């Protein structure tokens, strides 16, 4: 019962936070001026002006907000493109769903690559604590965490794509996302996003496992006759993974937000590049749709992280007095 009340409370707070930030984004983007006279709409610039007026873009901001929410709730209409030449008149939702798969795929591939390597390095460093292996891994971890992902992208682009010519410089066009050639074209972007994640997983795993290995219950396990490897596998790793697994979800979200720049560098036709273009062009509907997407994913991830603690470790009872 406590858990159910806690979930309802967290969902309510999440929706309230989402609503507040959503309204703030809408008001702030609407306060920015847009020069409609300089944008075309096919061969009829007046058609765009008339369409904007028909959708209430010339009304007061709060009235526009009401009309915008009404269109979304009743008609499922998230708006149309206005200022980006390649998306003028395009349906926002259709464009979003068409460009979402590349963004999701490169983040999934990045996580699948980073999670096992990062956790394995963290375990190895913890087992070799204060030895040269531990110092080497810890130093590399600090370097990789400190350097932004776009620096790795530049190095990957220069070394692997230009010098060694192992991978294409940009992602292949088309929608055959699961072909070998398409996967190969995604590898530079995946590698660029993976280095920081690997370092984060390695640092977190080493810190947690090192603390568990020095706990009193580990000494008790050894005195009962378990070997070091048995005690580490059966007890230390299980306890150390309790905070690690929820962090994987949070790390995925941070990678998702960090892929905005990576998508631009490697010409990934995903929502990250679309979001940056919408911000630069002050395209209202695209900006609101993508802002709501990233905001909702981030808030939902924090909720899932909190709830996952109680699922992974039954001793944790969320919401209990």
Please specify the SSE layout and strand pairing.
Blueprint: H1 2-31, H2 45-54, H3 61-75, H4 92-127, H5 132-146, H6 149-163, H7 180-213, H8 216-223, H9 228-265, H10 271-281, H11 284-312
Helix pairs in contact: 1-11, 4-5, 4-7, 4-9, 5-7, 6-7, 6-9, 7-9, 9-10, 9-11, 10-11
Question: Could you explain how this protein is built, in words?
Answer:
This protein is mainly alpha-helical and 321 residues long. It has eleven helices and no strands. Helix 4 (92-127) packs antiparallel against helix 5 (132-146) and helix 9 runs antiparallel to helix 11 (284-312). The longest helix has 38 residues, at 228-265. The N and C termini lie close together (11 Å).
CATH names the topology of the largest domain as MetI-like fold
Oligomer: single chain
| Global geometry | flat
Just name the CATH architecture of the largest domain.
Answer: Orthogonal Bundle
How much helix is in the residues?
Answer: over 70%
Give the integer mean of the pLDDT values.
Answer: 82
Number of helices: 11
Measured by DSSP, the beta-strand proportion falls in under 5%
Distance between the termini: 11 Å
Task: Write down the secondary-structure element order.
Answer: HHHHHHHHHHH
**Over the alpha carbons, how many angstroms does the gyration radius reach?**
24 Å
Uncertain segments of ≥5 residues (pLDDT<50)? none
- Number of domain modules: 2
Helix/strand structural class? mainly alpha
Number of strands: 0
Largest sheet: none
CATH class of the largest domain: Mainly Alpha
> Can you tell me the CATH superfamily of the largest domain?
MetI-like
